[in-house]
Amino acid sequence: MLAESDRRYDITVVERGRPAERPGFGITLREEGLSFLDLGTMISGVHLQGRAFWKGGAAVVDLPNPASTHLICFSRAAFVNALTKRCIDADVEIRYGCDGATLSDTYLEDFDLVVGADGADSAVRRRYETDFKPEIGYGANRYGWFGVDTAFEKLTIMLPEDGTMLGWAYKYSAGRSTFIVECTETRFRSNHFDELSAEDTARRLGEIFATELGEGSVACGDAARWMRFGTITNTRLRHRNVVLIGDAAHTTHFSQGVGTMFAFDDVLALQSALDQHHAIVDALDAYEALQQPKIAEYQEIATASMRWSEKLLDCAERGDDACVSNLIAQRWPDNAVPPGPMNSGDRM
């Protein structure tokens, strides 16, 4: 976006992956996100039809889309391809197969501005850790990202009959859905997910969610990785001419689906600050002042959502059906979707 706004910018993107590498399944954006990225003619997305909660294979919540916003989902590969084409068209140099951790300080010092957009495990953040002062708080549940060849037309949360796991699914292309699964540490160990191969993990998840997935098969991608969600915050978002954006700067729990949207909000805020301030350090100070309150607001909502799913699984494991029903009612009071943070859309 910077290169498109002013061709005098000489921009280099350092990408640790190879040109053909496109890991992952689907991603979500709000409609307004597609609009400000101007990707409407470059990529075809799937408009989700609302939200649903399935308990024991039966729908106990079935919501249409709220009037204020719709969720749009894309294949991650198609999304990255569209952004890559825009970079190439804007004469941005892309260095593939280059890990930012291997770049020398001398190399980085040649740039007027260094943007750390390298994800939650950011090498840029680690390099200047004493200046950014990051903190990471971990959730209690284990979770993993998978795919499934069942088309979930709505953002669908699934609690199987035995209440051992919680699934989150949404369609991102014809016949394909992202499938995020979480469970307590106890269930993670009792299912031996720490020992199973990717193939056996997919098979086991298919058994647990057999009613919900129907004939669908679970895919693990290159590996079956189970993690505890880390909520990342940084005391500072900039150090000298280095700035953090996206998951390198902040993470929000997947249950709210705002991570990609928030990363591009960072991009717009940074671009605006650079347009308004001649000195890089002044622009980065302005960016930090604008985004830090947003980070706090988004993370408060996303962390509450994470705690909700933790409580839900705890109640389900105890067989406390009343507790489960109360938590479902709390998430969607009056069978409606509450407004989301910063008026940017509705909570998931």
TrEMBL record:
Pfam families in the record: FAD_binding_3 (PF01494)
- Where is each FAD-binding domain found? 112-290
Quote the InterPro entries the UniProt record gives: FAD-bd (IPR002938), FAD/NAD-bd_sf (IPR036188), PheA/TfdB_FAD_monoxygenase (IPR050631)
Keywords assigned: NAD, Oxidoreductase
Domain of life from the UniProt record: Bacteria
Q: What SUPFAM superfamilies is this protein classified in?
A: FAD/NAD(P)-binding domain (SSF51905)
Give any GO molecular function from the UniProt entry: oxidoreductase activity
Q: Report the protein name in the record.
A: FAD-binding domain-containing protein
